[in-house]
Amino acid sequence: MNELSIKVNIANREYPLTVKSEEVESVKKAAIAVNEKVKEFEKNYTVKDKQDLLAMCALQFASQSLSNEGKVAVDSALSNRIIEVERFVSDYLKKG
């Protein structure tokens, strides 16, 4: 796993980061998503301090992440159940 030094621009500030080579694209996409959300909040709210906009972004992304955690748990449980059913059917067909 190679680590790379990259710079991302968030809310007109540059941040140097060290990331694994396989994470570079996702980190850059995340920075783009944050910048788009900051612009959206700037347009829709009369907030002058970028810190407030970034806090609003962090809250929204954290909320979405927590919401998705529940979906992942359900998907994982469903996947496990499907695997059990497939094994049962496979065993039944082998016997019959």
Explain the overall architecture:
The structure is a single chain. The protein has 96 residues and is of the alpha+beta class. A hairpin with a 2-residue loop joins strand 1 and strand 2. It is elongated and about 70 Å long. Strands 1-2 form a two-stranded antiparallel ribbon. The chain has one domain.
Short account of what is shown:
The chain is α+β, with helices and mostly antiparallel strands and 96 residues long. It has helices at residues 24-44, 50-95, and strands spanning 3-10, 13-20. It has a two-stranded antiparallel sheet with strand order 1-2.
What spatial order of strands do you see in the largest sheet?
A: 1-2
Work out the count of structural domains.
Answer: 1
What is the strand content?
A: 15-25%
Mean pLDDT: 86
Which tags fit this structure?
96 residues; alpha+beta; single chain; 2 helices; 17% strand; 2 strands
Layout of SSEs?
Layout: E1 3-10, E2 13-20, H1 24-44, H2 50-95
Antiparallel strand pairs: 1-2
Helix pairs in contact: 1-2
